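1st attempt posting a full record on here, be nice pls
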Amino acid sequence: MIRRDVVISGIGLVSALGEGPDAHWETLSVGAKPVVDEASYAPWTVHPLPALSLDTQIPKKGDQRQMEPWQRLGTYAAGLAIDDAGARDLVDDMHLIVAAGGGERDVPLDEQVNAELANSNDTGSRLNELLATGLRPTLFLAQLSNLLAGNISIVHGVTGSSRTFMGEESAAADALRIAHARLSEGRGEIALVGGAFTAQRWDMLLLYRGQDGMWQGPHKPLSERPVAGQGGMILGGMAGFLVLETAEHARARGARVLARLDAVASDASRRTAPGDAAEAARALLPRVAPTGVDAVISGASGAPEAWAEEENFLRGLDAPVRRPANLIGHGVEGAFPAHVALAALALSRGGFYAAMDPADAGEAAAPSRILVTGFGQWRGEALATLSRAEKN
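the predicted structure (as tokens):
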């Protein structure tokens, strides 16, 4: 089978540092400080989302009202990517692959249910009564993961095939892997792929609090958290969407190409012993970067065991590393596509980023090939390589 080159022609990126390629490049290339909210969700810190002008990408107020925040964020970033690619007239043929979580809960209703059941002698009937009167159809729709893809289709008119992946960080890696594979194998010409995550949610903070997964207290640099004796993630709201095209398709329409997406690979070792995940990633490396790389954008989340595994893997690479989670937090389903977007942005601008974390070392003035890693916070190793695009 003849494999076709796949390129990135559009980026939709939102994080605590702002929205769009220009905002991120201007901030990260000269050195940025973390944007954090240490008070609203204490004892946990979050990297909050910036204010978004939703009307520019989701013009109908009714559409905005029926979405929960994570859907609005993803739909907004997807529109940014389409516009960045100049592909509004191509949405009829655009395939859509989305990484999504399980939706958002009605936290006030959860609190009411828990409070009343704690003092009830008939918990079964009271629970049924509370759910019958408290739940609403729009909440049920907000909890359907594939509604993110559905809203992108409705709002932006993307009507090619649609797929939704669930499974936290691995979902995002596989969404990108499948999109790349379909285009490279000739099963499409253009695709929109990405994910989104909102960190300003009590339910997510409590969920990931299990097994000491979250950093407690004021922000501390990513690499210094294990030294402090606990480690842990600081979640960050973010969305990363990419428009992928075959090189021939992009060339035929005169599209600006940001970078070539060379390969994406993923695995899910069981991590039963120290070093398992690092070894699994090393096994993936020849598939995505047989001739080496010039720089690395690390997907380190801050989860202690995953951090140790990734550091083990990174020690075998002779390349400067940047760790965005120190500045924008860990974005779960949104992290891997956002980091790939940062790699494409650096390649398109002919430069690289200033150190993002105290552990970041080495300079790469103008890398030609960048490796993006993902070790998640529990399971799922992923690697992607991007190369500088050839001038048309």
